[in-house]
Specification:
It is a single chain. The chain has about 120 residues and is α/β, with parallel strands linked by helices. It has 5 helices and 5 strands; from the N terminus they run E-H-E-H-E-H-E-H-E-H. Helix content is about 45%, strand content about 20%. Strands 2-1-3-4-5 form a 5-stranded parallel sheet, sandwiched between helices. Helix 2 runs parallel beside helix 3. The protein is globular, with a radius of gyration of 13 Å. The N terminus is likely disordered. Keywords: Phosphoprotein. This is Response regulator. InterPro entries: Bact_response_regulator, CheY-like_superfamily, Sig_transdc_resp-reg_receiver.
């Protein structure tokens, strides 16, 4: 893949304002962004769309971000995962799923865009 215009990001975020802000920013960076509000919606998207990067909050209403990330890697083995979190907790599960560890809330959308770019180049 040579152009970021073809790269699809699945953003799973329960907070509507954060989801809208981050989606708009990533679209401005040239990514195709598909939004989901929970794990069930995300799994539906993963099953029907080619997704290159999954960005998920660790705390979802219907599953944990860890469970969703593990399921995503089963469906899409090459997918890159970024887990965001609002707490300062650390977990070995985050290290197993995320190459660069969790992204703590609040984060600037540019920080997320930079991390996506690094992951896609690795």
């Amino acid at each position: 893949m040579t152009s970021i215009e073809l790269e699809t990001i699945l953003l799973v975020e329960t907070h509507p304002v954060l989801r809208a802000t981050v989606s708009e920013y990533l679209r401005g960076c040239g990514y195709r962004v598909i939004e989901a509000t929970n794990a069930a919606e995300a799994i539906e998207v993963l099953s029907s769309h080619e997704v290159h990067v999954l960005v998920t909050d660790v705390e979802l209403r219907d599953a944990s971000g860890f469970q969703l990330s593990a399921h995503a890697k089963e469906i899409r083995p090459g997918i890159k995962v970024i887990v965001t979190r609002s707490a300062e907790r650390t977990s070995a599960a985050v290290d197993d799923l995320c190459e660069e560890g969790p992204l703590d809330h609040p984060y600037h959308p540019q920080k997320l865009a930079d991390r996506i770019k690094r992951l896609r180049q690795s």
